Amino acid sequence: MRVCIDVSPAVHQRGGMGRYARELVAALRRVDPGGAYVGLCDRAGHALGVGRSDVGLATHGLGDRAWRLWSLGSHLTGVPADARLPSADIFHATDNVLPRVARMRTVMTLHDLAFRVHPEAHRRPNRWYLRVAMPRMLRAADAVIAVSQATARDAVRLYGVSEERLHVIPEGVEARFCPAPPGEQARVRAAYGVSAPFLLHVGTIEPRKNLTTLLQAYHALRAQRSDVGLALVGRRGWLSEPFFRALRGLGLEGEVRLLGAVPDADLIALYSAAEVFVFPSLYEGFGLPVLEAMACGTPVVCADNSSLPEVAGDAALLVPATDVARLTAAIRRVLDDAALRRELRAKGLRRAAGFTWEHAAHETLCLYHHLLAEGCGRLACG
Questions:
Q1: Strand 317-319 vs strand 300-303: parallel, antiparallel, or unpaired?
Q2: 290 and 147 share a domain?
Q3: Average pLDDT of 225-239?
Q4: pLDDT (tens digit, 9 = 90+) per residue, 187-225?
Q5: Tell me, what's the pLDDT at 53?
Q6: Which terminus of the chain has fewer Cβ atoms in its 10 Å neighbourhood, N or C?
Q7: What is this structure's pTM?
């Protein structure tokens, strides 16, 4: 069996989707060392970053935007896109882009439907493209992987995806995400200019992450706990201007540390060093940073919507995403209660241990074999 996987989000380092593509490919090579896998992207010879020299790379010969439009065009015209794809038995789309394919079985990973649930958090061209492309691509896929039950429910509710083609396969946490030793924690605090104690958020600065609410909660918290800092890890994304206006308006420009993207080794130490990980997102398809924080032994306060209760279980304090007072109170409760911090740490470590990329890869591999053997009927693989 030869599988072609779109690794574009890993090549372009697109946040959660990039980590999904990179870690899934690496885990597939671990659980299926004899399998034949090729990564598809638009940059020939680009390092995939999965640490495996036996994962070949092929390019479709188009830029990122042209590939998206060309893939949509293949559905609108009915002309298959096989000529731009390497020969394979399965094509796995991981980047919300599935062209029309005639000679391969197809799998599409659906990360979320945020553009439908929170259209105001997306730019107009992106909303237009996804509104036109998404229903066609979901219909064309032989199988759809939803990364959470919440995302699966959205797929059924918004697009009528049949249960026969829909498979829930959660994401995982890499084994290297574990509590960092005190020396490493001290190193990253010094390197990034972050003083203890501090709150941490990880994610792109964009409207869906609801960071203006986090700023408001932090501003209120500082009236009670002026010793607590706030560090944000993640690149500046689209429609981020309101966040920066709020940062200036609340007088927090010199108080909040904007760290940008950081290497995983530093990220693990930052998770471990944080007093509380705060994640008030308006909507998530999965919410991997919540599990990564738990795996590093950090107490979590997160929103109570979409996939987050499913992922966090009873190992976090959950609050309404836009309720500043309740978010502030939950953070303050964790900061002030050492017993609660110990409880959340223990529960979080146990919770995170239940999500592995090996499990995700095994279930995905079962799906590949199922599609080749039996068409697109129900999966029955333990």
A1: parallel
A2: no
A3: 95
A4: 999 999 999 999 999 999 999 999 999 999 999 999 999
A5: 46
A6: C
A7: 0.92
Residue 131, helix vs strand vs coil: helix
Return the closest-CA partner of residue 311 out of 267, 277, 361.
277
Q: Locate 342 and state its tokens.
A: 């110990």
Containing 327, the helix (H) or strand (E) segment is helix 324-336
pLDDT for position 14: 72
Q: What is the pLDDT of residues 258-283, one digit of tens each?
A: 999 999 999 999 999 999 999 999 99
Residues 255, 237 share a domain: yes
- How far, in Å, CA of 345 to CA of 359, rounded? 23
- Rounded Cα distance, 96 and 136, in Å: 11
| Of 97, 99, 109, 106, the residue nearest 145 (C-alpha) | 109
Bridge partners, 6 (sequence order): 40
Could you give the number of structural domains in the chain? 2
Could you give the CA distance from residue 211 to residue 242 in angstroms, rounded to a whole number? 9
Domain identity same for 278 and 367: no
Kindly state whether residues 114 and 247 are assigned to the same domain: no
Kindly report the CATH number assigned to the domain that includes residue 198: 3.40.50.2000
Residue 379 maps to a domain? no
pLDDT value at residue 79:
95
